Amino acid sequence: MKIYIAGPITIDPDHWREHFADAEEWIHKAYPNAEVVNPLTLENEPECIEAREQIGDGKELWNWMLKRDIRHLMTCTHILMLKGWEKSEGARLELRTAVDVGIVPLIELPEESVLSTYWDNYGKKKEGKPRTVAADFAKFI
Predict the structure, then answer these.
(1) What is the CA angle 53-57-63, rounded to 5?
(2) What's the CA gap between 30 and 138, in Å, rounded?
(3) What mean pLDDT do residues 28-36 have?
(4) Residue 24 CB-half CA count within 13 A
(5) Is 2-137 a domain of CATH 3.40.50.1820?
């Protein structure tokens, strides 16, 4: 199992850095053998640092990073959508791409924390793991 974390990064980068870190921690607890792809940690890779120096900030850098993130997403079996994902152009694109190629979506409900309760496919409370109903995403993708 390899899980990609997706959510709104550019909306509030400082807040989301912590939220992505919490999500990564939660994944390691819920799925001890899972690998995690956290796009915020990818920013420390040499290719990303070089891209920032060459491209600078703005839409061109955003495009470059999204392409890099999609390459990493394609190696995953699941995508965890953090609350607020529906407000993020990049996260919505990542989800559409994931669903199109059969990557299983996991959703964090807006009113819940990544470390708390999720709902199963039948609307019953369930501890620990988020639901995986692709139909939930239809209005956003």
Answers:
(1) 100
(2) 26
(3) 91
(4) 13
(5) no
